[in-house]
Amino acid sequence: MLDALTVAVSVAALALAAWCGFAAYRDQPTKDWHFIGMAVVTLLALVQLVVGIVRLAGGEQADEGTAIFLAYLVGALCAVPAAGFMSLAERSRWGSATVAAGAVVLAVLEVRLYDIWTV
User: Fold this and answer.
1) Which of 21, 56, 79, 95 lies at 20 to 30 Å from 38 by C-alpha?
2) Which residues 6+ apart lie within 8 Å of 79 measured at CB?
């Protein structure tokens, strides 16, 4: 995997978590700007998925196995959109808190992806 891409996804996810966490602290639901931020983070995760698949197809191997690596890539891609859809159901401060938690989950998944690729 590309270390710079992993760091970019992690930093973007943590920035989104801080932004939505601050909105939850201020008793605000998710707004359109938050969804734009979620789209950016999701796009970065999608780029990472494509890069991971291309590198696997090119003959490189994940140290802990291809199946677990692909499962983590797909999970990383789905973390923020799932939290975003849940925030639409909860139009209160807890919707923002849900997105913040989903973004933290993505950052943790990124650390695990790095570990799976480079043991």
Assistant:
1) 56
2) 45, 102, 103, 105, 106, 109
